[in-house]
Structure formats: C-alpha cells, structure tokens
C-alpha cells in the first residue's frame, strides 16, 4: 500500500476518534477565557478534525506527484471524506450545535453526487470534482471549525458568524449539487 492510500486510511481511522471526543463527555473542567468556555474533548476533536480534513488534499497531491494513483485510492478518498463529514455533522446535531435539516441537506447532496459518479463509472467515465465542489468542501470545513469553536472569537463582539457559515454552507452545497447534475445530465437515463 502506497503512502497516499495510507494517509487516506488514517483519515478513515480518525473518524471514530473524532466522534468519540465530540460525544463522550470527560469529567475535566472546560477551558475558560473570560466568558468563553470550551470543553477539552471538543478542543481535541477540533484538532483531530483539522488534521483529518487537511489530509484530504495531501493524499491526492502525493498520489499525483508520485504517479501512484490507484483504484483503491479513487475509492477510499471520497469515502473517507464522506465518512468524516457525515460523522461530524451528525455529532454536531447531537450536540445541538447544528440543525438536523442542515446535516440532511449536506449528507443527501454528498450521496446523490456519489450515485451520479457511480453511474458515470458504469458508463466508463470519471467525473472530476468541480470548482464549486471544492468551494463547498472548504465552506463546510469552515462551518464545522466555527461550530466546534463555539463561534470563537466572534462571540466576544456578538457577531453570529456561525449562522453565516451555516447558511453559506447550505447554499453552496445545494448550488454545487445542482451544478453537478446539470453539467452531467447526459448520464442520467430518462428512459430504459
């Protein structure tokens, strides 16, 4: 197994660890700065999430640079991304930091696009990520970081950046999904 695939597998193995830190409460006093408070397990989850999310681009870069792109990597990379995002979104819903409807929209878009990619593979085509898909990922990661930071440092000036990034994430997720299907409508069978 090559280095790029090992990095992707590491991202998959980080998913349950991040989730455990988010959902299991530790009996440790929270980190407090003035009126701001955050639990240590949330800090650990945030750091692990940032590490896992940053490996997404790293594994692809290494695979292309070293010319070690494999079918296993093509399968595992998007799977790792979806597992990480879905797990953290569901945990945020459980923690009451995110509405379930937001998680449903984001996760549904991911699986709908995955389905379209599977149809493309059956037709012998590979659909590359669009620029909107890349922006969508960046905005979703930003949203998760802001939510895990409890809107820090914007809470000190009473600025609800968390709501801004949630809505930005929903809008770009929906737009990128529509864009993906419109650009690849020739792959969608309208009749048998």
UniProtKB/TrEMBL annotation:
Q: Which GO terms describe its biological process?
A: phosphatidylglycerol biosynthetic process
Q: Where is this protein found?
A: Cell membrane
Where does it mainly reside? Answer: membrane
Residue ranges crossing the lipid bilayer per the database entry:
12-28, 40-62, 83-107, 137-157, 164-182
The EC number of this protein is: 2.7.8.5
**Task performed by this protein:** This protein catalyzes the committed step to the synthesis of the acidic phospholipids.
The family classification in the record reads: Belongs to the CDP-alcohol phosphatidyltransferase class-I family.
Q: What is the designated name of this protein? A: CDP-diacylglycerol--glycerol-3-phosphate 3-phosphatidyltransferase
Organism annotation: Cohnella endophytica
- Annotated gene: pgsA
